[in-house]
Every structure is written in structure tokens, then in C-alpha cells.
Amino acid sequence: xxxxxxxxxxxxxxxxxxxxxxxxxxxxxxxxxxxxxxxxxxxxxxxxxxxxxxxxxxxxxxxxxxxxxxxxxxxxxxxxxxxxxxxxxxxxxxxxxxxxxxxxxxxxxxxxxxxxxxxxxxxxxxxxxxxxxxxxxxxxxxxxxxxxxxxxxxxxxxxxxxxxxxxxxxxxxxxxxxxxxxxxxxxxxxxxxxxxxxxxxxxxxxxxxxxxxxxxxxxxxxxxxxxxxxxxxxxxxxxxxxxxxxxxxxxxxxxxxxxxxxxxxxx
Length: 267
Ligand code: GLP
Known about the structure:
By secondary structure, this protein is an alpha/beta fold. It has helices at residues 9-26, 41-54, 80-87, 109-122, 159-165, 184-188, 203-211, 244-258, and strands at 2-6, 31-34, 62-65, 67-69, 99-100, 128-131, 153-156, 178-181, 192-197, 229-234.
């Protein structure tokens, strides 16, 4: 796993946007996997800026979101469809018919989940999946104990997640207890994963994800099995990482290599 430690959430957003923008430029028909929550907001703001100021073109991009609350209509301000529309889609030139968010009001959740998986395959799979992380180490809504091979399905939220997400709702009782979410197995099939984390409250989840054992109790740790994960975290989220000095050295060596400053012995 490549680990990039940035000073704060602003630089995390800019650094993450470089990866997304490079892909969109290289492959204008790419398939993006998108996430909600407070963490990717800075990334979306930066991508909107790149669209407005540098003409970053999303017109042929397709997107699939990780998850959605069960029971909320797309017009509900706390639904993830609404979040994506108001924080990202409405501000870029993506064709909104090509944006997919699971339907939290589907009549048959099992059938809808299968259809969601099928749609991802039909589009050729996800090129880059943006991920945040829950304070209990979950990705999407794959709560502790989720199978590491799981596919899109219904999931019951833990009380920790309900508590964490209550800040977005008027009353804690309004937070839905169920969500439709891509599975860990679905996420692992993306060609690249971009994991973002900011703040001290994510430090333990990030340590367990990057340096702990692979375990269904921290579903993000399954990313250790993926061949191309880039974790971009801020100093606070990196606090508990034992090998942070090494991660920095790797980035410095990469930069030296790219800028031609790397010296071969004997030259
Ligand atoms: C929810 C979402 C996750 C997200 C997590 C953290 O549980 N389903 O995809 O990563 O919240 O959110 P935040 O970035 O607000 O801390």
C-alpha cells in the first residue's frame, strides 16, 4: 500500500484530486467509484475547481457510489444521492444519467443489489474507487464482521456508526439503521483504491488498516490484499502509524526518481 502523509485536510484533498484528475484526463470514459461523508468533500471541491478553471471534462465519466441509507428518498437532504448531487454532480459536466447511487427505497433490495453489481460489470468495472473510513475501520458501510468477500447488500449499521453520522441529522433517532452498500469483495475488484482519512479520530482505524492484521473486524484492512491502494492521510490521522518515517522516505525516493535526481552508484 502506498501511504502519503499530508499536513492537513486541504493538502489531502489536493493530493487526492491529482490522482482522480490524472485518470479522467488519461481515460475520459473512466468509471469512478465515489464516497460520501465529510472526508471527500475537499476532494470534490478541488475537482470542481479543476473543472471550472482548467476544463477537467467529466462528460464521458460514469460513477458508482458506495452506499445509500435505506428508507431515504433521493430528495432527502441526508440521502447520499442528494449529497452527491449538491456537493459534486451539479457543479461539473457529468451526465447525471451516468451516475449511480444504490436506491434506498428499492422494492426488492436483493434484486436491486444484484442489478447494481451487474451494472458495474457492464461498465467494465471501477477504475478508481474513492474511500473514506469509519472510526471503527469500516469502508462503505461494511461494518465490523462483514465478510471480506461480500457483495452489494443490505447491512445493519453499528451504534458507533449511527452515533458518528448523527451529526448530519436533526435528531439521532432520524439516522437510518440500515444501508445498502457495496461489499468488501466489490470494492476489492476496483482497479485502484484511493483511501482518504483526516483527523485524530481516524488515527486508530488508519493504524489498524495499514499496519494491523487483515481482519473482518476492520474491513478496511482487506485493502492490504489489493495490488494498488493509495492511502492519503493527514498528520493527525497518521499519528499512530509506526512506519510513517519510512512512508515519507518512499515518497522522497519516488520524487527523486521522477525528477532524475536519483544517483546510481559509480556515476
Ligand atoms: C459513512 C460512509 C463511509 C464513510 C464514513 C466516514 O459510514 N458510509 O463511506 O467513509 O461515513 O465518514 P466521514 O468522512 O464523514 O468521517
